[in-house]
Amino acid sequence: MSVVGEILRQLLRFGLYAGIQVLLVGQLSLFGLGWCFLYLGFVLFLPLRTPIALQLLLGFALGLAIDISYDTGGLHAAAAVLLAYLRPWVLRLLTPRDGYDAQDTVNVHQMGWQWFLVYLLLLVGVHHAVYFFLELGSFQHPLLTLAKVGVSVVFTSVALLIVQLLFFPVRRGRS
Amino acid sequence: MRNLVAFLLRYQGVMLFVLLEVASLFLFITNSSYQRAAFFNSANTYAGAVLARRTQVSDYFKLDELNRQLLADNAQLRQQLYPPDFTYREADSLPVGRDTLGHVIYRHLRPDPSVALAGPASPTPGPNPKQPNALARPDTLLLGSAKVAARDAAYPLVPARILNNSLRAVDNYLTLNVGEADGVQPGLGVMSAGGVVGQVKSVSAHYATVFSLLHSKMAVAAKIKRDGTFGSVKWPGDDYSHALLDYIPRQNRLVVGDSVVTSGYNAVFPEGVLVGTVESFVKEADKNFWTVKLRLAVDLAALPTCTWCTTAPAPSATRSKRPSRPPSLPRLSRLK
Fold first, then answer.
1. What is the C-alpha to C-alpha distance for residues B332 and B199, in angstroms, rounded to an integer?
2. CA of B51: how far to CAs of A45, A91, B45, B57, B169, in Å?
3. Is the dihedral of CA B202, B143, B166, A78 positive or negative?
4. Between chains, do B171 and A135 touch, taking CB under 8 Å as contact?
5. Global confidence as pTM
6. Which domains does chain A have, with CATH numbers?
7. Is the Cβ pair B17, A71 closer than 8 Å?
8. What is the complex's ipTM, to 2 decimals?
9. Which fold has domain B49-77+140-334?
10. How far does CA B144 lie from the centroid of its chain?
11. Could you report the per-residue pLDDT of B110-154, keeping only the tens digit for each?
């Protein structure tokens, strides 16, 4: 796929993830505790070879867009930048025995359930822990906050898994 | 030089990461301060328009609930307008004893109607000068059991709709569909029919961002309605239907169910607007004050459809006679 086409595709994804988050998913809450961070899917499912600087900038821009909608200042942006920074490390940690193929993407069908779940839970877990404790600014209500982190991890992971199963190609090679 | 470029390229990830983190943390930490540029919050024109459109759509799904709420409001208003005949009926006399002949003695609580009619018959029929003129009396709205002048030019009451509301964050905000063009300014108080909701944080032309009562830095100067003890209402950050009332001295007596209203001292809310009712109180060994738990008057989860923004009227002569504000009471206008 041409470079311009790829850029357009990623811009469209950016708009879709941010729009769906603000208009639909942000209203939902699980057990009155968990919140769905669906927009993380944009950063998590970027192509594997995206330059680190570009990933960081995209994460920052997306986080800031969510921050503006929910009046959280730079909270989402800070957590999303951390997520974008940690992603290459986790990818390196999870490298298959013979390295990544050129066509490999973050896709549950191609990389396998085990790889995908470890990748998702690790990054989403770190992101949510950082997000909720940063939001609190202290360790005043540790149990309540841990409950929020746990429920939100479940909520976000299930939502992203559904996105993967619905919209990502089963056969490798395309896109 | 080439080494420098190579160094920058090699560590571009780390440096950009640190830079962006510092930028976002700066935005996060300065978020709750006053007079922020209105761009980086939901009062921003574009974000406000998106949120307004979302409300338009989601309203359709809430029509049922809105209808029921309106019916209940209507019924309540009609009850106030057309009270049953016996609402104001009181006994005009009470039996207080018997005289020596065994007749019951009545004490009249109000002037005996027969005496009143025979006595000062008004010679000039016409409007009584003592009766207040309906036009001179300002129209009022009942907000949180306080009467607020609805058409006071100096302290306009701006009706607004809530576009966005959060409950479960540590610092919660609301977005309203009114802005500078409607006369809303940062620092105004926000109330709904039930009571206190929050305080305006920043405004753009047509939208406003509001500190919810559920904000870690929000403190409302309040008093207990029964005996007038001053305190300060703060939200501890866990449960969105409860808050704490601080600075009630330990020697004070408290009653479960006491109304807590705004004291009007921080000039954000008019005096007497309901904040909540006392639900429980305990004396903790290491504290000088009661730990009082309030149930908030406004149910912020059942999103009130409309609110009003206003400031408190300037302290009048009757107000300045009261004892001055205790120095320990936090001023809301100092909110940082």
1. 9
2. 27, 36, 10, 10, 18
3. positive
4. yes
5. 0.65
6. 3-167 (1.10.1760)
7. no
8. 0.73
9. Thrombin, subunit H (2.40.10)
10. 7
11. 665 555 555 444 444 444 444 444 444 456 666 666 766 666 666
